[in-house]
Amino acid sequence: MTAADRSPLPASETAPPGQDTARGGDLIPFRQAVKTWFAISLQTFGGPAGQIAVMQRALVEDKRWIGQQRFNHALSYCMLLPGPEAQQLAIYIGWLLNGTRGGLAAGTLFVLPGVVALLALSAIYVAFGTAAAVTGLFAGLAPAVVAIVAQAVWRVGRRSLTHPALIALAVASFAALALFAVPFPAVIAAAAVVGWLLARLAPHTLKPPTAHAGDDGPAPLIPDDALHHEAPGRRRALRILVAGLLLWAVPVAAVAVLTGAGSVFTTQGLFFSGTALVTFGGAYAVLAYVAQQAVQHYGWLSAGEMVRGLALAETTPGPLIMVVQFVAFVGAYRDPGALDPWAAALLGALLTTWVTFVPCFLFIFLGAPYIERLRGNRSVSAALTGITAAVVGVIANLALYFAEHTLFTSVDTVTAGWLQLAVPDVSTLRPTALAIAVVAVVLIFKVRWSVLRTLGVCAILGLSAALAGVPGI
């Protein structure tokens, strides 16, 4: 790819890099931004690791719309928030590029393909169960995602871990999560403290990353030192807070009035509103609680169906927390009240999706202007640099988790003192999944195929194996 190919837009169509744009102005044409976010949304497979990698490649490396340090700074802030950090990162960057409407467009498009795909798959599941063709497609996609996540760990780590001290912090974060089951918030808090200490005791460890081969293209449209025009303020914050809370609460209140306080819709709206506030550390951190409540307390679906719902969510674009849409769909379908079961399922799924993702917009629009002004604060920047290093370990832990549960049918937890190890049962290895994963690794790392192209090939391999009657699909 030449420098001309990577140029974001003709100079006449953009504001100069770093320029304080007019209030409400766009750094790039809004239509161009929408097209780009839609293209990104179709590639958001592989959980947060894959999603972050897609944005890294598209926005930092290819289009050069945002600098690497600015990208890392935004990502570190999003990792501190409850909810899907990759979608929040999209909202943040969309806001940087096109203001509030840019954030709304980026965040909405980021989840829209996943919402549509999971609605369709949920309906297929309810209507047809585990059809061989559907099972085969999933059996091909899941191993491909393992390779995509591995690529994400490499890409994000290569850019962010610029000193052995930061590499050590990433490794320590991975070990804390994978070996000792340390809570995610504790890992992030510790990383922030370590980053702050490094800035005070060994500031040379936090130097900006040096350029990599192939990074000699044009300067990013949003340089690392640019200042966003939208300043924080009490009036602005109050306006956004009131609007966000109303948008969040009114649909739940309307459902409660129309269907009753004890209806499945009201229960789902309130329950998933609560889970949206405690999903620190990504979906995996809260899914155990969701599964326990949905299966044992509310009886919306069985434990086996919860696992199948997770598989659906892992092989569709968008955040993994989208699995709550499947839970709501199945639960409302089986307890529709006075509504038609299909209408009830659609209402439950859409309401749950709404209360899950609206808070993400609220958190970013409220906090981003303050975080932007803190980029010059050395203590805050150092703490966020520590968090960024820890994020690499977090993504690596997610990659390990996904690989174990994709390549093996059974994974046991072994406790030995402080250690808590997830040990796969070697006898339950899925040879077909392993073979497809190897093909995906070769296509992505050696042949350098795109994510979508790789997913397409692997889906065909999985479908062919299922139709041929290969065991273990």
UniProtKB/TrEMBL annotation:
<feature type="transmembrane region" description="Helical">
    <location>
        <begin position="237"/>
        <end position="258"/>
    </location>
</feature>
<feature type="transmembrane region" description="Helical">
    <location>
        <begin position="166"/>
        <end position="199"/>
    </location>
</feature>
<feature type="region of interest" description="Disordered">
    <location>
        <begin position="1"/>
        <end position="24"/>
    </location>
</feature>
<dbReference type="Pfam" id="PF02417">
    <property type="entry name" value="Chromate_transp"/>
</dbReference>
<feature type="transmembrane region" description="Helical">
    <location>
        <begin position="342"/>
        <end position="368"/>
    </location>
</feature>
<dbReference type="InterPro" id="IPR003370">
    <property type="entry name" value="Chromate_transpt"/>
</dbReference>
<feature type="transmembrane region" description="Helical">
    <location>
        <begin position="380"/>
        <end position="403"/>
    </location>
</feature>
<keyword id="KW-0472">Membrane</keyword>
<feature type="transmembrane region" description="Helical">
    <location>
        <begin position="104"/>
        <end position="128"/>
    </location>
</feature>
<feature type="transmembrane region" description="Helical">
    <location>
        <begin position="428"/>
        <end position="445"/>
    </location>
</feature>
<comment type="similarity">
    <text>Belongs to the chromate ion transporter (CHR) (TC 2.A.51) family.</text>
</comment>
<keyword id="KW-0812">Transmembrane</keyword>
<feature type="transmembrane region" description="Helical">
    <location>
        <begin position="135"/>
        <end position="154"/>
    </location>
</feature>
<dbReference type="InterPro" id="IPR014047">
    <property type="entry name" value="Chr_Tranpt_l_chain"/>
</dbReference>
<keyword id="KW-1003">Cell membrane</keyword>
<feature type="transmembrane region" description="Helical">
    <location>
        <begin position="452"/>
        <end position="470"/>
    </location>
</feature>
<feature type="transmembrane region" description="Helical">
    <location>
        <begin position="310"/>
        <end position="330"/>
    </location>
</feature>
<protein>
    <submittedName>
        <fullName>Chromate efflux transporter</fullName>
    </submittedName>
</protein>
<keyword id="KW-1133">Transmembrane helix</keyword>
<feature type="transmembrane region" description="Helical">
    <location>
        <begin position="270"/>
        <end position="290"/>
    </location>
</feature>
